[in-house]
Design goal:
The complex is a heterotrimer of chains A (964), B (171) and C (92). By secondary structure, chain A is α+β, with helices and mostly antiparallel strands. Chain B has 171 residues and is an alpha+beta fold. A six-stranded mixed β-sheet of chain B has the order 8-9-10-7-1-11, with helices on one face. Chain B contains four helices and eleven strands; from the N terminus they run ββαβββαββαβββαβ. Classes of the chains: A alpha+beta (964), B alpha+beta (171), C alpha+beta (92).
Chain lengths: 964, 171, 92
């Protein structure tokens, strides 16, 4: 039988547009604007889903975005919240978490064995024997979780935007709307958000049988519309609070991060269910859910209903039920002296029976257990919280509407560091100390009467205006008067249980008692043991009751129990939103297109994409690297080293700066030469190395390893803040590119493109020159990192391709080929050069890598000097040595980071290791005990498989092995 | 007004200089500089002079400008004046959706009420360091963006994707 | 996301900044004992309270000092190291 009422103004549905959809194969019609739940309920379909654990039938509970037992899938999306998701034409819906549909869920047997599944049972039951755990894990994983992930889900790049405002108001109920009007009228840029599709909050449904609130709502909405400086976002929830008023707003289209100057939280309160046996049957719902059904969707919650209340709100709901044409057979008020104030009279006039000091002892299910068919009512001892069942009686009904109180929607306030205290006048946690620029108004602030909420909104707006330096009056805070909106303990014990506290996880009162008995009687421990509040609704309708139950068990006042931590995100947010369009910056050299065209395999080094090697004709990585290295050894190779850090140090004190920053001496360095640079930190640990070329008395040109370049430049800037020398630092990393031509043919190839005299006499190792190569202005640095015959060419980034192509052309006949950064690592290993960060770690001092030669202790100061003066007095603990494995070594080759073992103890590790085709040996670097550092001594390396491989210390460069 | 235009202006001539004497040196070459830090002036409609922080300048010739060439021809090194070579990528963004686009790229408020006339900001755009300013050009509000040239391909890619998504065009 | 104010570039989100550690004066390396130096290099005062810290505004390359309370995470003021003396004088 249809529960749809006739049209009423203010409803959210468009009766002119009919919508057809199916639910578990059955056809339904709805109106545009219906949610899935409201459409099904209107058609009399009351079993909408199954609970997570016991697979009990469930229906409408809150209709406020936390009916988490009612999750649907349409085949593409899953875990859609039916209570708020609009139904669309052509949808084919299924409830998740059932086998064979909600009506005949094959897992419903679990409910009958529920006594065997107390809370925490899986912590205990599947512990032993260990062998069986994988089996149980498989079973549990199958049972756990709700919807099934759709791996074919389309990739939609949701945008993540930023926006700014003076005042962000969260919640567009009476308090939020009033605050927005006030603040915007005073000139603030206001952003007003609400998770609902329409503004108004409770003004759109909490009428108490009258329309006063609706009229207030209309007035406020008109005013909001007339104010151009209010930005309204509906269907948007504030997902979290981050420092300095940074709040992500989640909408269907994506996330918008709002930076506000002040925030008013007017987020309202979640209605809390009273706890009694079978309070989860379809047909048992919260008072505010019934009101939403009636006024938003024109749907009658039931035909013959009972209101079970523990506050005055239930009386308003009863009047709304009457207004919707439902019969109200009884108002059952848990409070001995409860009467609902003014509404009492009106209900009596309309013949509604009121049972004060009574409770619904249990709901009665139909024979197929699919919905409520009656309520057992009896007296209730409000002092001792027990039902007095002597004179219990049953009333037949198809709905039980319940009101017991509220829990503040205070997640954002908690996240913002708000101190909350328990206010006994309202039986609710309320803010007691708010951080700068954050204000609370309305129900979340413990204010419940409509006119008071509006005044509280205005008060909050005034506070925000004052905070933002605008003139505003100081208004006094509102104070609740009359009976508490929430009941202190709306629980009805029942020997047979099934009185649910947490609907997400099917947790009953006895589960808390058992948890406490087992010692989990702290709220945080109880949460984890019982899983209360850990379901998809995150305790929005269960945490407060859990706190009250625990308080009672422990005989403590509620505020001594405390609350669990509230973390962002407030509401489950789709992964697609969080993923969204991300930014993954990367730097390319001007030769990137060339590398790509020549089949380079790229590697990420810092932000750079570098060509690692160029496999030819299906070469493996190892083969490609060996072939490139051979070309460098036999003829010549060319590598793009544009990613090197490049820094100019200008000024009269440039040499002094270098002498303070690095370990070496630069004051006496001749123009046209370069020197090695070694950078330490204050503890004397090796940080980086590089090359300093002296361009002029007052200008050095530094090249620095790719990975550390940004950090080294930053550190130079910081030191300069302290030293204040007469220098200027210019980072030219991106402005200049660099290539290195190396190998026996390098000189001949280069000489064909430049007038520079490249003879050893005119241009020896350790020198650099400024010239033009292929008409490109170039600094030529005669460095020997990868080969004794090598030239590093630095030129303006955009002209580097010209240089590169000219060299490639000139070298074609000489066997010149490109090589990548992986090959470079092998080449420098053959040369016996270490790389900081690869052959050193966060504790390595320069003595351990044999870098004494570049440490000039006779300078007045350099970074790390004082620490070295201490370290140099101490015996070394380890020493980096060059090693080789036996000629023709066959067997498991050790890897980088494999350990060096000495008499069964760890003595060090391998830092670099590679086969060199040119030398035809496996060569590497490793840390060994200092006693083993002499050339010719041998040590053992333990491989991944535990084999010990003998290695022999050799001198560098490794080429001597080949000659031997 | 078009929805969104992204124009690559990387090819403009640029000249950079920094140091305690840089402002004085530029003045001696007839280049007027902004008085305040993080500000810009357009000299004779042809040369954009940006003051990056307090003591660094980026000069960019617009169409017909010849200042950079002139400055570069003076190769004499002076204490307290340090040339900063530039290989920037640079873009012009304009159109009715330009703030929409920027709100995805940048966390700062770059609207007219927040970003003053002749103000310049060094911030992060699409995750990388960038310099941004707002300009009136032929009665249209345009945004100018500079970043390190090695990020140019990346930046171009990001701008293109968002512009196309918002219905704009890329030149 | 937290905001921090660079003395040159103004108030920006924390993502534009890099933390540079506590600002501390090194002892005179020529006169201090090994133990004093080691304490300076390796020991940090971890108790919450007012700290001077190095912060780096990355897009502009600006190092500055922030006086921050590590318990409340409130930044009292920020200034260039070169202005430290001036700032201290003004606040007296």
């Amino acid at each position: 039988m249809s529960l749809r009422n006739s049209y009423k103004p203010g409803e959210w549905i468009n009766r002119a547009k009919e919508i057809n959809f199916t639910f578990e194969g059955e056809a339904f019609t709805a109106f545009e604007g219906d949610t899935i739940s409201s459409a099904l309920w209107a058609a009399g379909q009351k079993v909408l889903g199954r609970s997570f654990k016991y697979h009990r039938p469930r229906g409408v509970l809150s209709l406020a975005n936390h009916d988490v037992n009612i999750l649907m899938t349409d085949g593409t999306d899953t875990n859609m919240r039916a209570d708020v998701v609009e139904v669309k034409d052509g949808m084919t819906l299924q409830a998740v978490n059932t086998i064979g549909g909600v009506k005949k869920d094959k897992n419903n047997y679990i409910d009958s064995i529920s006594p065997l599944l107390p809370v925490g049972f899986y912590y205990k039951a599947f512990h032993t024997p260990r062998k069986l755990f994988p089996f149980w894990e498989h079973m549990i994983r199958k049972a756990a979780g709700l919807g099934i992930v759709n791996f074919d889900y389309p990739r939609i790049l949701k945008r993540k935007l930023h926006t700014h405002c003076d005042l962000l108001i969260i919640g567009a109920g009476p308090s939020g709307l009033t605050a927005a009007c006030k603040a915007a009228s005073a000139g603030l840029q206001v952003t007003l958000i609400d998770e609902n599709r329409h503004l108004g909050g409770s003004l759109s449904y909490d009428h108490g049988g009258h329309k006063v609130s609706a009229e207030y709502g209309e007035d406020l909405l008109k005013k909001i519309e007339s104010l151009p400086n209010i930005t309204v976002r509906v269907g948007a929830y504030a997902a979290g609070y981050y420092p300095d008023h940074f709040i992500p707003i989640v909408e269907t289209g994506g996330i918008t991060k709002v930076r506000a100057k002040a925030v008013i939280v007017a987020s309202g309160a979640f209605e809390q269910p009273p706890v009694f046996r079978y309070n989860d049957l379809p047909g048992v719902m919260l008072g505010s859910a019934a009101q939403r059904l009636i006024y938003r969707y024109g749907v009658k919650p039931c035909h013959n209903g009972i209101v079970f209340t523990a506050n005055d709100y239930g009386y308003r709901v009863a009047l709304d039920l009457l207004a919707a044409g439902a019969n109200v057979l009884a108002v059952v008020d848990l409070r001995a002296g409860g009467n609902g104030g003014l509404h009492n009279l009106e209900l009596c006039k309309r013949g509604v029976k009121i049972y004060a000091g009574h409770c619904v002892y249990e709901a009665v299910a139909t024979s197929d257990k699919s919905k409520v068919r009656g309520a057992v009512i009896c007296a209730y001892d409000d002092k001792n919280n027990v039902a007095l069942t002597d004179n219990k009686f049953t009333v037949d009904c198809d709905g039980i509407v319940m009101s017991a109180g509220w829990a503040p929607a205070a997640a954002l306030l908690y996240q913002a560091g708000t101190a909350m205290q328990f206010d006994y006048d309202v039986q609710q946690f309320v803010p007691s100390r708010l951080l700068d620029g954050i204000f609370a108004a309305g129900k979340v602030n413990g204010i419940f009467e409509l006119d008071q909420r509006m005044r509280d909104g205005e008060r909050a707006a005034n506070d925000a205006l004052n905070y933002l330096g605008k003139l505003a009056v100081n208004t006094n805070a509102e104070k609740h008067s009359g009976g508490a909106p929430s009941h202190a303990y709306a629980m009805v014990p029942h020997p047979k249980g099934k009185n649910f506290v947490d609907f997400d996880e099917d947790i009953q009162i006895k589960d808390f008692e058992n948890a406490a008995k087992e010692g989990f009687d702290n709220i945080e421990l109880m949460k984890r043991f019982t899983t209360v509040g850990m379901g998809p609704s995150q305790g929005k309708h269960s945490n407060m009751n859990a706190i009250r139950i625990l308080a009672k068990i422990r005989g403590l006042p509620v505020e001594k129990i405390g609350t669990t931590t509230s973390r962002p995100f407030f509401h489950p947010t789709p992964m697609g939103h969080l993923g969204g369009r991300g930014f993954h910056p990367h730097r390319l050299t001007s030769l990137h297109d060339w590398h790509e065209a020549h089949g380079a395999v790229f590697t990420d080094i810092g932000a750079w994409k570098r060509a690692a090697y160029y496999p030819q004709f299906g070469q493996t990585k190892a083969d490609a690297i060996q072939a490139e290295a051979m070309a460098v050894r036999k003829s010549a190779g060319l590598i793009d080293v544009s990613s090197l850090g490049k820094i100019e140090v200008h000024g009269p004190a440039a040499a002094e700066f270098l002498e303070r920053f690095f370990t070496g001496k630069y004051a006496n360095q001749k123009i046209g030469t370069w020197r090695y640079t070694l950078l330490l930190d204050e503890a004397g640990v090796v940080v980086d190395d590089g090359v300093a070329s002296r361009v002029a008395d007052d200008l050095f040109y530094l090249s620095i390893g790719t990975a550390n370049a940004a950090m080294v430049y930053r550190e130079m800037q910081r030191c300069q803040q302290e030293w204040r020398l007469d220098i200027g630092l210019v980072n030219v990393t991106g402005a200049f590119g660099a290539i290195n031509i190396a190998g026996p043919a390098a000189r001949e190839i280069l000489s064909s493109l430049t007038e520079l005299d490249l003879s050893t006499e005119a241009f020896p190792l350790g020198h650099f020159r400024e010239t033009t190569v292929a008409n490109v202005p170039t600094k030529v640095i005669r460095a020997s990192f990868v080969s004794d015959m090598a030239y590093e060419l630095h030129s303006p980034m955009r002209q580097v391709p010209q240089l590169w192509n000219a060299l490639m052309d000139a070298g074609k006949q000489k066997g010149l080929r490109a090589f990548g950064s992986d090959t470079q690592r092998l080449l420098r290993l053959e040369m016996g050069h270490t790389i900081p960060g690869i052959d050193t770690d966060g504790l390595t001092n320069p003595y351990e890598i044999g870098a004494e030669w570049v440490i000039k202790m006779d300078k007045p100061y350099f970074v790390g000097q004082r620490s070295l003066s201490i370290l140099s007095k101490r015996p070394l603990r380890k020493q980096l040595v060059a090693f080789t494995l036996a000629a023709n070594f066959k067997g498991e080759v050790p890897l980088e980071c494999n350990l060096v073992i000495d008499s069964g103890e760890i003595a060090g590790r391998v830092t670099s290791i590679s086969y060199s085709k040119f030398i035809d040996r496996i060569i590497g670097f490793a840390y060994v005990a200092p006693a083993k550092k002499a050339v010719g001594s041998s040590f053992d390396i333990r491989t991944d498989n535990g084999l010990l491989v003998a290695a022999t210390v050799v001198a560098t460069p490794f080429f001597q092995l080949q000659e031997a | 007004m078009p929805i969104l235009r992204v124009i690559d202006l990387s090819a403009h001539e640029r000249y950079g200089v920094k140091g305690p004497q840089a402002a004085k040196w530029l003045a001696s070459h007839g280049v007027a500089t902004p008085k305040n830090a993080n500000a810009w002036v357009l000299n004779k409609g042809k040369t954009l002079v940006m003051r990056l922080g307090t003591s660094e300048f980026l000069i960019e010739d617009q169409t017909d400008g010849k200042t950079c060439e002139k400055l570069a021809s003076d190769t004499k090194r002076v204490v307290g004046v340090y040339k900063v070579p530039h290989a920037d990528a640079s873009y012009l963004l304009a159109g009715s959706e330009v703030l929409n686009m920027l709100s995805e790229l940048c966390s700062l408020d770059l609207g007219e009420s927040a970003l003053a006339e002749n103000e310049l900001v060094m911030t992060q755009l699409a995750g990388i360091s960038a310099t941004i300013l707002r300009q009136r050009m032929d009665k249209e509000t345009v945004y100018r963006v500079w970043c390190d040239g090695t990020y140019g391909v990346y930046m171009q890619h990001v701008l293109r994707n968002i512009a196309v998504e918002l219905g704009g065009s890329v030149a | 996301m937290k905001l921090l104010t660079c003395p040159i570039n103004g108030t920006r989100p924390l993502s534009e900044f890099i933390f540079g550690g506590e600002y501390r004066q090194a002892p005179d390396q020529n006169t201090c004992s090994d133990a004093e130096w080691a304490a300076y290099v390796h020991n940090r005062q971890g108790a919450p309270g007012d700290k001077k810290e190095w912060w780096y505004h990355s897009p502009s390359g600006t190092w500055f000092i922030a006086e921050r309370n590590t318990q409340t995470d409130k930044v009292a003021r920020t200034y260039l190291l070169a202005d430290a003396k001036k700032v201290v004088k003004e606040s007296k």
